User: Which sequence fits this backbone?
């Protein structure tokens, strides 16, 4: 890749990151109650004032990470908003005092509305608290992160009963790819800069890695979203389901794990099994872009949105392909990055109001004009742009020194 091409990619990514952050700074802050509105129309108008705890945690993490790692975002308004969001979480994320199970949604003022029987509100709460500690050095946030991390570990690895999901005879336990992925993300967050915590979470990181690799099935040719707890393929629609974006995201998590562990074999497994293969099977040869869901045996998935093009699989693909190229210099990854970059930047950005549309038809037309909702907030897009910017900075420095 030439210096000129690297610089063009970087310039566009920097421009989009600045416009994206500006959109959330301008429209999402609840200056009366704290926290963030995430149900935002195309122009940033709030169309629903429910607050989703996992998205609150994501936005706190994103603001803190940008504040800490990119000098142009080291601004008091970003730090103040992150702190206000963190304090909102401390006050209202738990639906009742002393609960470690957090709400999924609360009212604008923080009253609990809904609890989900999953670990994801708690996971993003942990990310938010740890990153908030890093930028403020207030140890109450670190304490919250470590205590919630331990609770999540227990639920995921030992005893899920506290999640409130009743066991049923016809619904045996399964292994969902999302769980070890999320825990590995937490391990990477908490162990950063701390040999003591890296040692403490080493075993958990290895467990997560092994659990993720179990989803590589059929002699390494497919990544399945759900397998049995001992890593066997499941029958029926559930067992055949593929999510190309999830596989690609898992791929770059494994690349980071391989870097941290110094494991070239893990990096190779991630590149071949979780990045190149899911990209090849997930790319739509007719309309371009990545399918949301696929059936491994070619049946029509039962999810009605299976052939839509969502923003987040494409942002995860950009990170996975660029990081993979940085580590391997495999020209296939660079070519796929160009392909995804071109399609993505031609279809998702909103040139008029900023940020990106999240949901497109198979043909690439916008189907939903809102910029945020219960499942789209200030996270996948700015995280991917931030990571791609930092990777490109490294590649530019390496290329210019040659």
Assistant:
């Amino acid at each position: 890749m030439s210096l000129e091409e690297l610089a063009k990619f970087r310039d566009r990514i920097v421009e989009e990151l600045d416009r994206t952050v500006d959109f959330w700074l301008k429209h999402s802050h609840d200056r009366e109650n704290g926290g963030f509105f995430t149900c935002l129309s195309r122009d940033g108008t709030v169309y629903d004032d429910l607050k989703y705890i996992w998205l609150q945690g994501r936005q706190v993490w994103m603001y803190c990470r940008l504040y800490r790692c990119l000098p142009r975002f080291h601004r008091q308004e970003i730090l103040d908003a992150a702190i206000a969001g963190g304090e909102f979480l401390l006050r209202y994320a738990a639906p009742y005092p002393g609960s470690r199970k957090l709400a999924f949604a609360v009212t604008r003022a923080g009253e609990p509305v809904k609890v989900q029987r999953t670990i994801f509100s708690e996971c993003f709460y942990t990310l938010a608290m740890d990153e908030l500690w890093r930028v403020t050095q207030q140890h109450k946030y670190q304490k919250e992160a470590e205590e919630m991390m331990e609770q999540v570990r227990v639920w995921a690895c030992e005893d899920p009963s506290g999640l409130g999901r009743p066991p049923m005879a016809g619904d045996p336990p399964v292994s969902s790819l999302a769980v070890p992925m999320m825990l590995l993300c937490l391990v990477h967050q908490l162990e950063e800069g701390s040999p003591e915590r890296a040692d403490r979470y080493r075993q958990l990181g290895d467990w997560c890695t092994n659990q993720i690799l179990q989803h590589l099935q059929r002699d390494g040719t497919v990544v399945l979203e759900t397998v049995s707890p001992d890593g066997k393929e499941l029958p029926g629609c559930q067992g055949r389901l593929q999510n190309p974006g999830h596989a690609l995201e898992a791929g770059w998590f494994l690349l980071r794990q391989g870097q941290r562990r110094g494991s070239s074999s893990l990096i190779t497994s991630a590149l071949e099994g979780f990045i190149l293969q899911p990209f090849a099977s997930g790319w739509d040869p007719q309309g371009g872009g990545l399918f949301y869901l696929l059936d491994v045996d070619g049946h029509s998935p039962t999810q009605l949105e299976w052939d839509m093009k969502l923003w987040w699989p494409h942002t995860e693909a950009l990170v996975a392909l660029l990081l993979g190229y940085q580590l391997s210099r495999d020209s296939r990854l660079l070519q796929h990055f160009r392909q995804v970059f071109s399609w993505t930047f031609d279809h998702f950005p909103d040139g008029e109001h900023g940020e990106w549309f999240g949901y497109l038809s198979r043909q690439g037309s916008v189907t939903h004009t809102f910029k945020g909702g219960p499942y789209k907030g200030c996270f996948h897009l700015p995280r991917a742009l931030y990571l791609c910017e930092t990777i490109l900075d490294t590649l530019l420095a390496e290329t210019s020194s040659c």
About this structure: Residues 3-27 form the longest helix (25 residues). The mean pLDDT is 96. The CA atoms of residues 236 and 326 lie 38 Å apart.
